[in-house]
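Hey,
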Amino acid sequence: HANVILLLAGLMPRRFKGRIIVQEVAQVFAGRNINNPIRDRVVLLLMKWLYPYANSVIAISSSISQELKQLTTGKNLNIEILPGSIDFDTIDNQKNELISHEWLDDPTVRVIIAIGRLSEEKDFQTLINAFARVRKERNVRLIILGEGKLRKSLEAQSRQLDLENDVFMPGFVK
């Protein structure tokens, strides 16, 4: 965790005299490192101890800010919320563009669309498992937009659950 290392370095005497500002972009308590819970606990303990030494902490959402305050209870933490940038002009220009896919053209089929990086913290594994349960009872399809290191395992999971004709993962779509 880069912020922890930066803050540790800042605590070393006579090494650094500047201001230390860290940015937190991920939820503090959810999905930090699902595969390594011991590392997760150690990082959270270090964050609890070290984050109050930062001159400022930037959180990209109010929910992350609240989690940081909860983690560092009773400690003076200077948190600024700076949301991730959103290009509203691009969104406005693209909002009326047609998206073409046979599932979207069929009024008898309901389509669930999920968007995000294919990574542990996004937990698309649970979405696919839940979708498999719903698919048994309803005429529904799933489109997952995004790229990431879990693509192959998510595709394998879809095949294992016999959903290869019901889950479409086109990757990153502009």
